[in-house]
Amino acid sequence: MLKVVDLAKDFGGLRAVDGVSFEVREGTITGLIGPNGAGKTTMFNIVAGHFPPTAGRVQFDGHDITGMPSYKSFARGLVRTFQIPRPFAEMTVLENLMTVPQDQLGERFWNNWFRLGAVRAEEREHRDRAVDILTFLNLVHLGEEAAKNISGGQLKLLELGRALMSDPKMILLDEPGAGINPTLLGEIVEKIAELGRRGITFVIIEHNMDLVMTLCERVLVMAEGKLLMEGSAEEVRNDERVLEAFLGGVAQEAD
Amino acid sequence: MDFLSLLSFLTFFLIVASVYSVACLGLNMQWGFTGLFNVGVVGFFAIGAYASAILTGPDYPDTLLGGFGLPVIVGFAGAVIAAGLAGLLVGFVTLRLREDFLAISTFGIAISIQLVALNFSRLTRGPDGLYSLPKPFSGVSTSVLVDNLFYLAICAVSIGVVYWGLERMVRSPWGRVLRAIREDETAALALGKNVFRYRLQAFVVGCAVMGLSGALYANFVGFISPQDFIPIFTFQVFIMLIVGGSGNNLGAILGGVVVWALWSGSGALIAGILPPTIQTQAASVRIVLIGLGLVLMLLYRPAGILREKRIVSQEARLPDGVAGGRAAGPGD
Predict the structure, then answer these.
(1) 8 Å CB contact of A140 and B194
(2) Number of CB atoms found within 10 A of residue A182's CB
(3) Nearest CA among B263, B261, B262, B280 for reference residue B271
(4) CB A99 to CB B194 under 8 A?
(5) DSSP of A140-209, one letter per residue?
(6) What percent of chain B is modeled with pLDDT above 90?
(7) Interface contacts (A, B; CB < 8 Å)
(8) Of the candidates A91, A106, A143, which has its C-beta nearest B324's C-beta?
(9) In Å, how far are A172, A218, A225, B72 from A233, measured between CA atoms?
């Protein structure tokens, strides 16, 4: 479903991503782990089209999407969430979701003058879908609250909800578990697993290894811009190189 | 003051306030709803004024265009189209810029427009200006008051039409995307919105409305020259929008009236209570007073007199019976 070939990205003199290749099969949940500065988020940014790579190619669903702006890759069913949630703060939770569907009739302003009935009917459909998703995420009681007033964990769910509104084929989640209390984390894990069973493909950047081990069939490990290894959660957990990448400095000092 | 002169004064006051209110509505589309920092309001106001003046004015000697003597309504339509086209051109060039650069470039463009008005005398008659611009219904009566009352009615209708059109546009999925862009452009892009296209649309609509404001001004005053189009106009409109309530169209209209009342009222007050010897210096006091008012407003009621509605689209309410569905509360 997603294929990355020899991807590289330079920022000035720094090579943030260095010749990375991997493939993600449809219907799987893949973890992307690595120490801070390994290039994970940069990888997401390239795949989602926030900036083009210096070299290499990205294929999604059989099409080359290298350097395609994010609003276009989004239309093909590839969505990402952000490490730090980016809600539309002054809008309600419900409208944060209702903004998402593509090519809404009412997004062409003249339709609001001349085809108000059709616009409103479509709006009610989108609202009902948004209410369903909010119910699934246990956020529906906050539907008319401004997004700026809800908690950090709820914002993560809101981001997931916005991603779901688009009927995505693949969701890139950037640290869904960061800064979230254990109860809510359990809830998020459960929601992602449920969505995975419904056939959505996930790639998840995460530092919380419990979450990765619970959810991910395959795990990619990055370090210093390179793909260190890939394997099952079990293989990765027991791999010397991975241990060293995460704890490298400490291990060397102990020698 | 007898009743008739009070009425004339009020009419005059409200017409000028209406001109500002319409400009405020245009800026609200750009700044209030979309977050576009257009500091060149006066430029599009000027384009509207000149467009209507050229279309409706008499034949002047030595000009390239003119002498059309078209009905005022055609002048207004021409002003809307001319300012909208100018907005399209300027927006296409500048709207990819970050907001601080957008501010600098629009400011520069407004200054350039004024300089063109000053120097392109074959079109604008330069500093001599365009004069004898017609007012609609001016033949109906010989009384200036009746003329002005008619004109006030035209202003009221203009505000009504613009308000209705903008509300209908903005309380919709389209307006929701504008608000999303204002709140977080990157997230809007990541959610598949073609941000540039929406910014351009909002910018052009706002500029067209500013053009109408310019036409209302030109045909009311009957004479325009480049001195009418100096940058302070832009700042007045910004202050009006912030005081009235950025993001709220009724607030934009109200802001125009309230701030213009303070502006002209403080002028009259200064003229009334200060000795004639320091009158000229005292004129600056009113800029200080308005500035003070703005600071107090930002400190104590930053959202303006009428704050923006939190729910953008009319259908975006939780249906009855869904947990959390509630009656409208504060801020809704």
Answers:
(1) no
(2) 9
(3) B280
(4) no
(5) GGGTTSBGGGS-HHHHHHHHHHHHHHT--SEEEEE-TTTT--HHHHHHHHHHHHHHHHTT-EEEEE-S-H
(6) 57
(7) 142
(8) A143
(9) 18, 6, 21, 76
Which residues of chain B neighbour A146 with C-beta distances below 8 Å?
A: 310, 331
What's the CA dihedral at A34, A36, A41, A46 to 10 degrees?
Answer: -80
Distances (CA, A) of A71 to A100, A125, B186: 11, 23, 10
- Subunit contact A70:B190, Cβ cutoff 8 A: yes
From the CA of B163, how many Å to the nearest CA of chain A?
A: 13
The pTM of this model reads: 0.86
Domain spans of chain A, in order of start: 2-254
Q: Among partner residues B188, B190, B326, which is closest to A80 by beta-carbon distance?
A: B190
Q: What is the average per-residue pLDDT within B53-71?
A: 85
Is residue A206 within 8 A of residue A212, CB to CB? The reply is yes
Pair A143, A134: CB distance under 8 Å = yes
What would you report as the CA-atom Rg of chain A, rounded to the nearest whole angstrom? 19
Q: CATH class for domain A2-254?
A: alpha beta
What are B241-271's pLDDT values in tens digits?
A: 999 999 999 999 999 999 999 888 887 887 7
Render pLDDT for B131-181 as a digit per residue (tens, 0 to 9). 888 888 777 777 888 889 999 999 999 999 999 999 999 999 999 999 999
A8, containing H or E segment: strand A2-11
The span from the first CA to the last CA of chain B, in angstroms, equals: 43
Chain B residues in contact with A71 (beta carbon < 8 A): 189-195
Low-confidence ranges of chain A (pLDDT < 50): 250-255
B175 to chain A: closest CA residue: A107
Chain A closest-CA separation from residue B35 CA (Å): 13
pLDDT at residue number B276: 78
Q: What is the pLDDT of residue A64?
A: 93
**Angstrom distance (rounded) from CA B63 to CA B49:** 17
Cα separation, A98 vs B100, in Å, equals 30
Which structure tokens are listed for B7?
């009425």
A96 within 8 A of A134, measured Cβ to Cβ: no
Question: Closest partner residue to A74 among B177, B191, B313, by Cβ?
Answer: B191
Average pLDDT of span B203-208 = 97
